[in-house]
Structure formats: C-alpha cells, structure tokens
Amino acid sequence: MNHLKYLLLAVLTVFAASACSQNKSQNIMEKKKVLVVYFSATGTTRQVAKQIAKIADADICEIASAKPYSSADLDWTNKQSRSSVEMNNPKARPEIKAVSVDVSKYDYVFLGYPIWWDLAPRTVNTFIETANLAGKTVIPFATSGSSTIANSVAVLKQSYPNIKWQTGKLLNHVSEKEMEAWVSETIK
Ligand SMILES: Cc1cc2nc3c(=O)[nH]c(=O)nc-3n(C[C@H](O)[C@H](O)[C@H](O)COP(=O)(O)O)c2cc1C
C-alpha cells in the first residue's frame, strides 16, 4: 500500500514539474512589451509610474508639459489659475514636449496621471491625440487626494472609443505587494 502511495506521489510530482516548466517557457516566448507613460505635476504619480515600470520590466516615458506647472498654476482655489482655466475648458490641449516613443511597439500601455477636478489633466488628452494609440490596450492609473479614478476613465473611454481601455486603478498608498499583484494580473 505504501509503495502505491509513493508511486502516485512520484507521478504527480513529474506532472507538476512539467506543467511549471511549460508555463515558464511560454512566458519567455510570449514576453509582452510594456510601456509606462505618465504625467505628473508634483512627483506623486511619477513615483508610482517608476514602481510599475520596475515590476513590469517596462519602458517608461514622461508626458512633460512644454511649460511646467508652477504652484500658482496648480492653485485649485483660484478660478483664474492655469489648471482651473484648462480644466474648465474641455477643448484645452496644453502643449507638451515631443514624446519620443513609438507606442505601436508595445502590447500594453500603462497611462498614469493625477486626478484634476475628477478628470485626467488636459495634457493627457494632448498626449493621446498625438500618439497613435488606436487599437492599443491602455491601462489607466492615477493618484489623487481622495477621488476615485472612475470618472476620469469613463470620460477617456467616451472621448477615445478606438482605444482598448482597461478598468484602471487608483494607486494612492498602495503596498508594493498589492501593486505587484495588480501589474502581473493586468499583463498576464
Ligand atoms: C489642479 C488640481 C486639481 C485637483 N483635483 C483633485 C480632485 O478632483 N480630486 C482629488 O482627489 N485630488 C485632486 N487633486 C490632488 C491631486 O490629484 C494629487 O495631489 C495627486 O497625487 C498629484 O499627483 P502629481 O504629484 O503626480 O501631480 C488636484 C490637484 C490639483 C493640482
């Protein structure tokens, strides 16, 4: 009886080992090309973008405003501040520095931004409209004071229906473990 048990255990071990190595070789063969592209006015989203790029072994690229935002520009209590004026105008497309990345090379594009007035900043629209993202799988992520990412993603989906938008995630104070789990689940 004991012999039978050992034989069964040995057979199961061989099966488990071959399934694992097959998965491994599949992963190597199908290694996805991932890009992390982000806008960040004060550095919070940048830190998160760098973490994602490290976990996903991805290329990373910043969407830089042609004219950086000063603290006065970011004053949401002032209706005349640059950010308030831009966010009040759905057609505003602030100039950005040329982004020297060919998005067509990538299987997945993580797109990060801070939430401004429950939306993605207009610089993100400028980027989307200058990069050729049609048909690409784009995964939004954001940081915020407290707002969720939901409204910003809904508006992006509605504005750019030819992009394959994924649900996205708000990454405020997310542990490294949670971030790792989310990234690997997203690009598997
Ligand atoms: C103009 C402006 C508008 C903002 N609007 C919101 C908002 O609607 N909801 C929210 O939770 N946080 C809001 N915030 C806070 C930012 O989303 C938050 O500080 C973010 O992490 C900043 O990211 P960054 O350092 O990458 O620029 C706003 C910040 C600015 C400057």
Kindly describe this structure:
There is one protein chain. The protein has 188 residues and is of the alpha/beta class. 41% of the residues lie in helices and 14% in strands. It has helices spanning 2-29, 44-56, 82-88, 122-130, 150-159, 176-186; strands at 34-38, 59-62, 108-114, 137-143, 164-165, 169-170. Strands 1, 2, 3, 4, 5 and 6 form a six-stranded parallel sheet that branches. Helix 4 (122-130) links the parallel strand 3 (108-114) and strand 4 (137-143). Helix 2 crosses helix 6. The protein binds flavin mononucleotide (FMN). Flavin mononucleotide is lined by residues 40-46, 74, 76, 83, 114-118, 143-147.
Attribute tags:
41% helix, 6 helices, 188 residues, binds flavin mononucleotide, six-stranded parallel beta sheet, globular
Count of beta strands: 6
Distance between the termini: 42 Å
3D shape? globular
Which ligands does the model contain, each kind named once?
Answer: flavin mononucleotide
- Helical fraction: 40-55%
Given helix and strand content, the structural type is alpha/beta
What's the pLDDT, averaged over the residues?
88
Order of helices and strands: HEHEHEHEHEEH
Main sheet overview = 6 strands, parallel
Estimated share of beta-strand residues: 5-15%
